[in-house]
């Protein structure tokens, strides 16, 4: 017990067990954690195209991403927050419930975009993910992601990039 704090103020989080990854291991990639002690973690995710080739249609990719996100909300209680599609990679923030499996959700998103683009081998295997632990971390990551098109020279101001959005407000960590 902490002095001056009643036990009722503590919330006990049960670990969420993630299934073991069945996909092939990527050389030098750290293994995913199978226990996470955060209830409904907020993930920052990045995944890239194979050999960094351009996505054939950012317009169709964005429609597919948004449709997948809306389906995820309705059927699986998975919230896609802010996202940015770049010509050869995608950044996004996502949060799911207790039974949420990030790798399955990302795999489904990649498949949905491939189907919309009629492309079979668009994506590089795997993805980068980071669990955010504070509102400051979310804001910092979002500012970096939002400015990607500006740094790449595609637009002068981040708000001018048409391939970004926010499906659900999830910035309260």
* Intertermini distance: 25 Å
Number of DSSP helical runs: 4
Q: Biggest sheet: strands, sense, closure?
A: 5 strands, antiparallel
**What's the SSE pattern?**
EEEHEEHEHHE
Mean pLDDT: 81
> C-alpha Rg, in Å?
18 Å
Beta-strand percentage range: 15-25%
Q: Can you describe what's shown?
A:
Mean pLDDT is 81; it is low at 1-26 and 32-37. Strands 6-3-5-4-7 form a five-stranded antiparallel beta sheet, sandwiched between helices. The protein is of the alpha+beta class and 173 residues long. The chain has helices at 58-76, 102-117, 135-146, 148-151; strands spanning 16-17, 35-36, 42-48, 79-85, 89-95, 128-132, 164-166.
Briefly summarize what is shown.
With 173 residues, this protein is of the alpha+beta class. It has helices at residues 58-76, 102-117, 135-146, 148-151; strands at residues 16-17, 35-36, 42-48, 79-85, 89-95, 128-132, 164-166.
What is the topological layout?
Elements: E1 16-17, E2 35-36, E3 42-48, H1 58-76, E4 79-85, E5 89-95, H2 102-117, E6 128-132, H3 135-146, H4 148-151, E7 164-166
Antiparallel strand pairs: 1-2, 3-5, 3-6, 4-5, 4-7
Keywords for this structure?
single chain, 173 residues, alpha+beta, five-stranded antiparallel β-sheet, two-stranded antiparallel sheet, 4 helices, 7 strands, disordered N terminus
């Amino acid at each position: 017990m902490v002095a001056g704090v009643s036990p009722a103020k503590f919330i006990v989080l049960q670990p969420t067990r993630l299934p073991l990854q069945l996909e092939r291991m990527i050389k030098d990639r750290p293994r995913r954690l199978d226990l996470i002690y955060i209830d409904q973690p907020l993930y920052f995710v990045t995944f890239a195209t194979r050999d960094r080739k351009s996505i054939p249609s950012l317009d169709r990719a964005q429609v597919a991403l948004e449709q997948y996100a809306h389906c995820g909300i309705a059927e699986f209680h998975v919230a896609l927050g802010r996202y940015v599609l770049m010509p050869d990679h995608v950044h996004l923030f996502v949060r799911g419930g207790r039974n949420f499996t990030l790798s399955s959700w990302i795999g489904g998103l990649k498949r949905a975009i491939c189907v919309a683009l009629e492309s079979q081998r668009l994506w590089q295997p795997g993805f980068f993910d980071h669990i955010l632990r504070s509102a400051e971390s979310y804001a910092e990551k979002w500012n970096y992601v939002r400015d990607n098109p500006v740094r790449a020279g595609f637009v002068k101001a981040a708000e001018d990039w048409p391939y970004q959005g926010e499906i659900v407000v999830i910035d309260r960590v």
